[in-house]
């Protein structure tokens, strides 16, 4: 079995997290890309918890991952449900159009 170096895995985690941050910063139009960027950042954090939990031989990281995945799943389900209803009403999901809602 090939044992990967801790620095190699942490570089992957940092890269995934930065891709998520860039998705949030550079995207101003599409709310689906915003949701995917948030999910990518949460998954990078989960990978970080798992790696350090294995490295330190502790179960606390796995417990945090379980809670974070549960919250991320609920956030995605509620966000997509809201977007689906909004799309049915207005036929668009552009962020600039959603920001202009008064009521």
TrEMBL record:
GO terms for cellular component: membrane. Belongs to the complex I subunit 4L family. It is found in: Membrane. Gene3D superfamilies: 1.10.287.3510. The chain crosses the membrane at residues 6-26, 38-56, 62-87. It comes from the Eukaryota. One of its GO terms (biological process) is ATP synthesis coupled electron transport. It comes from Thalassiosira pseudonana (Marine diatom). Pfam families: Oxidored_q2. Keywords: Membrane, Mitochondrion, Transmembrane, Transmembrane helix, Transport. NCBIfam families: PRK05715.1-2, PRK05715.1-3, PRK05715.1-5. It is a multi-pass membrane protein. GO terms for molecular function: oxidoreductase activity, acting on NAD(P)H. This is NADH dehydrogenase subunit 4L.
